[in-house]
Amino acid sequence: MHMNMSKTTSLATACLLTLVAACWTSSASANVTDTFDTNADGWTHAPGGDPDTTVTYSATGGNPGGDIVLSDAGEGANDFFNAPAKYLGNDSVYLNGTFSFQLMDNSSIDDLSASLTFTDGAGDTLAHALPAFSAGSYVSFSFTLNQNGGWTYTPASGTGSPATQAEFQAVLANVSSLFVPGDFHSGAELTSLDNVALSVPEPSTWAAVVGGGGRRGGGRAPPP
Fold first, then answer.
1. Which conformational region is residue 147 in: left (phi greater than 0), alpha (psi within -120 to 50 degrees), or beta?
2. Beta partners for residue 66, in sequence order
3. Whole-angstrom Cα distance, residue 171 to residue 176?
4. Which one of 18, 75, 145, 210 is at 20 to 30 Å from 47 when CA atoms are compared?
5. CA-CA distance, 113 to 132, in Å (whole number)?
6. H or E stretch at 139
7. Are 99 and 150 in contact (CB under 8 A)?
8. Is residue 162 a contact partner of residue 151, using CB atoms and an 8 Å limit?
9. CB 150 within 8 A of CB 55
10. Burial readout 141-177 (b: 16 or more C-beta within 10 A, e: otherwise)
11. Is 10 in a helix, a strand, or coil?
């Protein structure tokens, strides 16, 4: 029995879309989010910052609801929000996904030297500078997690360079810390963080992967 070519194509397309939908539905459950509705959700002040800087929970002032606030003591070091354990470990499933959050700073922004930073167990880092933004209201940031997203890879002993796919995969496979910058002023300041999300790729990315237009290399596959 011979099947019409257009019918065969339609059947193949339907199967592909079904598979993409299954991948997306399953993987979306791996998304990690914090909206700080009731507490700080395990976020802390990152080690290495000013000794008197703190990160505390606020039930109001978020976008909406609660948020967490970094009170920068202005003692000279760069200060970061330190992500809890649920963002760490083998994050390979988030390759080609996004990391997003919202920040609000109450001071004049005059220092953007601190970068969003993923560090692996060997001390290698993936870092991305934040673009210039205005103080006084919440600003949204979203960063694509792949070698085309403008990230810099720096080995534990070496200099930084644009991240390659292999380097991205290696760091995401063994994330030991994730720091979100909270220090954008040369003196004391308050910086609020809200609506953090570590997200798997969108369905269009899965379609490219399943259909052969892209390839997720290394690390764990999407959950079954």
1. alpha
2. none
3. 9
4. 145
5. 11
6. strand 139-144
7. no
8. yes
9. no
10. bebbbbbebebbbbeeeeeeeebeeebbbbbbbbbeb
11. helix
Q: Around 156, how many Cα atoms within 13 Å sit in the side-chain half-sphere?
A: 7
The pLDDT value recorded for residue 14 is 42
Give the pLDDT confidence score for residue 204 in this predicted structure.
Answer: 58
Q: Tell me, what's the pLDDT at 220?
A: 32
Give the pair of three-digit tokens for residue 204: 């269009």
**Span 128-160, pLDDT tens digits:** 999 999 999 999 999 999 999 999 999 999 899
Q: What is the pLDDT of residue 188?
A: 94
- Which residue type is seen at 180? V
Contact, 101 vs 141, CB < 8 A? yes
Tell me the whole-structure pTM to 2 decimals. 0.81
Peptide bond into 84 cis (omega under 30): no
User: And the tokens for 11?
Assistant: 């059947």
Residue 202 is predicted with a pLDDT of 80
Q: What's the confidence (pLDDT) of residue 28?
A: 55
CA-CA distance, 50 to 13, in Å (whole number)?
A: 56
CB atoms within 10 A of CB 52: 12
All residue ranges of the chain with pLDDT < 70 are 1-29, 204-224
